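dumping this here before i forget
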Amino acid sequence: MNGTLLLRIATAIILLTHSVFGMFNGGINDFGNLYLNQIGFAPFGIFLAWSIKISHIIAAILLLANKYVKPAGFITIFILIMGIILVHFQEGWFVVGGGRNGVEYNFLLIIVLLAIMYPNGISRKNNS
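structure:
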């Protein structure tokens, strides 16, 4: 078993649980209505919130299946970066402890997704 398998499973679990619970407790609609619409995405806040969560579910399934990992990773990283810009940056670094709702969780997920997408690192080929 290689290390990226463990990372893919763990990341898929995080993406699934973060998304699925919001579908059943009203969290996705609240995020769309009470946050996204309020910061200028009205009337598309609920649509955007659901799109984000559905993309997380699709990415989780693709990570588990080890299919289309790079496109799933790029889309998820884009969403995480937008989350940092729109939500978490203003709260600082820490999710808990030294602060609340900061960027560290998204930062870690971005790095893990990059490690999954590029298990051998990113290198420029020398064509000389």
